[in-house]
Amino acid sequence: MDTPNAASEPFQLGWEEWVSLPQLGLPALKVKVDTGARTSALHAYDIESFGSASSPKVRFTIHPIPDREDVLIHCSAPVVDRREVTSSNGESEWRYVIRTKIRMGKREWPIDVSLTDRGNMAYRMLLGRTALAEDMLVTPQQSFCQPELGYESYHSVAVKQDAPRRSLRIAVLSREAHNYSTRRLVEEGESRGHVVEVIDTTRCYMAINQLSPEVYYDGTRLPRYDAVIPRIGASITSYGTAVVRQFETIGTYCVNPSDGITASRDKLHAHQILARQRIGMPATAFAASPKDTGNLIGLAGNAPLIVKLLESTQGKGVVLAETRKAAESVIDAFRGLKASFLVQQFVKEAAGEDIRCLVIAGKVVAAMKRSAAEGEFRSNLHRGGNSSPVRITKQERDAAVRAAKAFGLNLSGVDLLRSSTGPKVLEVNSSPGLEGIEKSSGKNVAGLLYDAIEKKARPVPARRRAAVKPKAT
Questions:
Q1: Is residue 45 domain-shared with residue 155, that is, in the same domain?
Q2: DSSP character for 392?
Q3: Is residue 82 included in any domain, yes or no?
Q4: Residue 342 sits in the same domain as residue 356
Q5: Distance between CA atoms of 360 and 128, rounded to whole angstroms?
Q6: Contact 426/282 with Cβ under 8 angstroms?
Q7: In this structure, are 16 and 155 located in the same domain?
Q8: pLDDT value of position 471
Q9: Which of the residues 61, 190, 311, 328 has an alpha carbon 20 to 30 A from that of 299?
């Protein structure tokens, strides 16, 4: 694009022109050129500042076409100033000022523009004199000296695909702000220009009503988030999923839904969901009465057996019973503690190894093989297991994708065993760790998650406003 040059021939402008603001995703705006106004102004509403004090940003919504409130463009930009601006009718207001590139004809240059609600104006933008270069000549008696554009561009697929990435405000629900997974989510999001905030789930509380349900944190109402990434620990599943449900209630996009997290954490419920979807898994049995111990063991296929607490995690509460007598003893012990548990077939051919498939938005994006430490049957990395890269089969890939889909999870770690009769799903983890899978596969899993979030996240619906016909310019 040509840039302003005082030595070139005058760049002719009329009192109204067509411009585009490509960095904001606005391909066509009809503007009023007003040399009597010092500051340029752009129509904006639902204006919200976010980000750190050292690097503030602002996001806003614009109806680019007068009288077409069904056409909405959501924009974000860095803030360069906040200043008091006096309008032509003598009213003053404090406005955010952003810097963006303006394109007119073959020329493109940066301008500062203030944000204000011009919903009752015929022109969505006012071009003030500070936005004009020295070689620009405004002829008040003429209109559209530069090439005309059209509002139909807002419906163009090509324009939509080329729209700039909008800065998102994202919350990571986590009680461990400094662990690897949370740090990676923050670092990756900020590297893409998003604002990522870590929220301790247990410090959230909720106002539940039909008019304005909200989430509060340490005495302050939380702002609108474009997306929430839940990393709910097993010890707070009930309260954590209640917080996620509250975000769902107010219309926030949650990477994993509350019901999917709840179902995946309850081993019995999870296996019933897998069975309903005809997804391969080890033979599993459950009973409440001690009179059923013998039949329970028989249903799972006789010893050796795995006895597993319903809410076990990271291999805790999982016992290998190598004989029938040992299985009966473990079951009696768990019943004595009034614990709920499953009895499950032990897949010998897996030889202490399992496959962790990381599934994002319906695709297996990475996989690793986890091998148990010597003398250990559990392959969890938290139990001293080792990880290594692995190539999975189409059957294993399909099983992982189907399992994640069964729980409605957009991010999950699906654990599989390789058996003589095909892959067996052991568990679907709704808060998978990223460290092992990223280091084993060499893939930027956090980045792949943000790719999915950027496609899915939508701004919270704007407040309904009565249509107002243009009255002034």
A1: yes
A2: P
A3: yes
A4: no
A5: 47
A6: yes
A7: yes
A8: 46
A9: 311
Comparison of pLDDT for 462 and 223, the residue scoring more: 223
Distance set, CA 382 to CA 28, 175, 348, 415 (Å): 55, 18, 22, 15
pLDDT of residue 2: 53
Instruction: Supply the DSSP symbol for 472.
Output: B
List all residues 6 or more positions away from 460 whose beta carbon is below 8 Å from its beta carbon.
224, 226, 250, 251, 252
Amino acid at residue number 174: S
How far is 343 from 319, CA to CA, in rounded Å?
A: 10
User: Longest Cα pair distance anywhere in the chain, in angstroms?
Assistant: 99
Which DSSP string corresponds to 71-133? Answer: --EEEEEEEEEEEEEE-TTS-EEEEEEEEEEEEETTEEEEEEEEEE--TTBS-SEEE-GGGS-
* pLDDT of 470 strictly over 50: no
- Helices 258-265, 237-249: crossing angle, 10 deg rounding: 160
Amino acid at 48: E
CATH number assigned to the domain comprising residue 289: 3.30.1490.20
pTM, two decimals, is 0.75
> In this structure, are 57 and 149 located in the same domain?
yes
pLDDT tens digit sequence for 434-451: 999 999 999 999 999 999
Burial code of 154-175, b = ≥16 C-beta within 10 A, e = fewer? beeeebeeeebebbbbbbbbbb
The answer to the question of residue 24 being in a domain is yes
Residue 43 has pLDDT above 60, yes or no: yes
Whether 401 maps to a domain, the answer reads yes
466 pLDDT above the threshold of 50: no
Q: What are phi and psi of 97, to 5 degrees?
A: -120, 130
3-class DSSP state of 58: strand
Which of 346, 373, 388 lies at the terminal end of a domain, its last residue?
346
* 294-308 pLDDT, tens digit each: 778 888 877 788 888
Q: Is residue 359's pLDDT more than 90?
A: yes
Handedness of CA 404, 405, 409, 411 (dihedral sign): positive
Domain, as residue range, for 154 = 11-161
Count of domains forming the chain = 4
pLDDT single digits (tens) 172-227: 999 999 999 999 999 999 998 888 999 999 999 999 887 788 999 988 999 889 99
Which of 312, 346, 380 is at the close of a domain? 346
CATH code for position 367: 3.30.470.20
